[in-house]
């Protein structure tokens, strides 16, 4: 193997081994006693179910990762990349169309091979533990819609990126960066109106105590809302969630019906305050800027490895191509991607703490955010004692116990200050 093949091979292997070690450590850590913060809420039965759920999902995740790695290595060393390339070149299409077909076929085959794992998780694991509400017809409809969106949105985007690198010379990476960035921002703006409703129903929150409490809080922190919507999350899962959509005056709150049904008003407003905290602390903008910068760096580095003969030799490729450069560079980029993901996870956990503190500081019953986290952890069978190494690699949110402790400490400090 040449240097590029060696780097890619060991990067893929190291990534899998890190996943394996962190998952096994996490399973071991889940056997720790229930933290004091959950005494009376997580009984022995709930703890047992939580550990069983973690074991089931971890086993499936490791099997899926091992299968993907074995499949990639088999395809690579059986010269599958080159065989597919020669096959598609035989149709006589231009380089851009051939590239779209090449990448599209690889992504489609990967999705089809991963489908059994998705089906098993949904209809076996999630069903066993009482989370699944998805019917086979809804599951199939979601797959069809996802495929259709990939064709309608992903195909033109991929075509544009390949066209830029084929025709616009040394600054192709800049054109591709600008084009993808503009489209990404546009999609974030139109997704709440045109894309999300394809999968879920958005119904305006009816008048009542919850809506009045939300609107009152939003006014106190000067956060204008265009609407508060309820999502039929119970159509697919018993798990709960909440998020913001839209920009500017089109900002909207989306609450899962499962969240509303499982929590009192004060907890729901506290959850909302946490989400508003992300907006007020500029976390959304920071994440978008970092994503855009990372995308620009990725395209620039790609331009440096474009049509690199040694890189193509590593994958037994006869012919050079832009689309081949894109795929092989992304595999070469694996160790960089891993390091960046760890950095972004650290930043995300910091942002979660800041949003928690914002909720406690601006909502007079913000301490109930801790109660909401406790109840969500119980209903979702969360792992209350994750291993630090697993958290370091994978958690975008801090462990729930640490969040609850800091929320209570911050609330106590604020109360002490107000009394003085």
Automatic annotation (TrEMBL):
Note on cofactor: Binds 1 zinc ion per subunit.
Membrane topology: Multi-pass membrane protein
Keywords: Endoplasmic reticulum, Hydrolase, Membrane, Metal-binding, Metalloprotease, Protease, Transmembrane, Transmembrane helix, Zinc
Binding annotation for Zn(2+): 274, 278, 352
Localization in the cell: Endoplasmic reticulum membrane
Active site positions: 275, 356
GO biological processes: CAAX-box protein processing
CAAX prenyl protease 1 N-terminal domain location: 25-201
Names of required cofactors: Zn(2+)
EC numbers on record: 3.4.24.84
Pfam families xrefs: Peptidase_M48, Peptidase_M48_N
InterPro entries for the chain: CAXX_Prtase_1 (IPR027057), Peptidase_M48 (IPR001915), Peptidase_M48_N (IPR032456)
Domain Peptidase M48: 204-409
GO molecular function, one term: metalloendopeptidase activity
Transmembrane segments: 53-78, 90-113, 143-165, 172-194, 214-231, 284-306, 326-347
Stated family: Belongs to the peptidase M48 family.
Protein name: Ste24 endopeptidase
Annotated organism of origin: Chlorobium ferrooxidans DSM 13031
